[in-house]
Amino acid sequence: MPTERKFTLRQNGATASILCAGLALGCGLAAIPETVQAQTIVAQIGVASEYVGKGLGKSDGDPSVNASVEVSHGDVYANVFVSTAKLSQGSDAEIVSTVGWRPEAAGYSFDFSATNRDLPGTRAGIDANFWEYQASIGRQLGPVNAKARISYSPDSFAATREAWWYELVGTVSAGPKTKVSASIADRTADGGAEYAAWNVGVKHKLTQKLAMDVRWYDTDSHAYGENYEGRLVGALTYQF
Length: 240
Fold this sequence. Notes:
Blueprint: H1 13-30, H2 34-40, E1 41-48, E2 52-53, E3 56-57, E4 64-73, E5 76-84, E6 93-101, E7 104-105, E8 108-118, E9 129-141, E10 144-153, E11 163-175, E12 178-189, E13 195-205, E14 210-219, E15 231-239
Antiparallel strand pairs: 1-4, 1-15, 2-3, 4-5, 5-6, 6-8, 7-8, 8-9, 9-10, 10-11, 11-12, 12-13, 13-14, 14-15
């Protein structure tokens, strides 16, 4: 691994693209009436000390930038999330597009969705576009907001075929602007890495639109490589 890491817009063209997309998005949202925007559109831009997905470092220890937008109508929603990345297969970004349904019934919240993941920059011959299908159920249990999530991909990234992700998440309010959360998850895969992952952290709203998250991520499979090792990640997000 290189001993010196640099993160500049020149080195990563995806960074500039995401920043431009985020600025354009912000200008577009500013033209939408506030009442309509609050009801149907949520968008944000962010920066993190490292991009993490499913418990793993996905930007080779470098900072990342991201942008997202979600449009909803009742319980139905669609969103797109884009982040810079740096994977060994050459990927320099990840684009996550999701459509889903979030109903509530008998005190439970549900979320059923289909997600397409695409990793631009991946070397030719590597499968870098795949689908995931997810279901989750949540409920308030005393002070804890508890959620269980299952995700399935019939043909995952690169040489991985079927892959499952099982996760339990618990969140507790530590004040009007602060939430503490933790999760534990397990990944099984046909032709890919299998591991357990967990994280614990604090999210605090600095202002009405600006939030900070500080979180520790780790897995039980450090032998797989550096991106499976424990890491402390800080992130800032600004919501339009």
